[in-house]
Amino acid sequence: MAQSETKAARDLTEMMEKTMQNLQSKFQAMSDQIIVRIDEMGTRIDDLEKNVADLMTQAGMEGHQTTE
Q: How far is 42 from 46, CA to CA, in rounded Å?
């Protein structure tokens, strides 16, 4: 009986290690996707700021800011 309990404990340990490795891989993939999307958003914001500045220059509003 002791041998079957030790085998069961080893099997359970092995299954848990595989499960934890699988979870770690999934979390890493999600983290990588989030970082990529944050970088893309930063690039979009930079482009938007440049476009707004260009539009303001074209409209003759360079250097003019409204205070609210």
A: 6
What is the total residue count of the chain?
68
pLDDT at 67 over 80: no
For the entire predicted model, the pTM comes to 0.63
The answer for residues whose C-beta is within 8 angstroms of residue 16's C-beta and 6 or more apart is none
- What number of other Cβ atoms are within 10 A of residue 56's Cβ? 14
pLDDT per residue as tens digits for the range 14-61: 999 999 999 999 999 999 999 999 999 999 999 999 999 999 999 987
Q: Where are the domains of the chain?
A: 23-53
For residue 55, the Cα-to-chain-centroid distance in whole angstroms is 32
In sequence order, what are the residues at sequence separation of 6 or more whose Cβ sits closer than 8 angstroms to the Cβ of residue 64?
56
H or E element at residue 55: helix 2-58
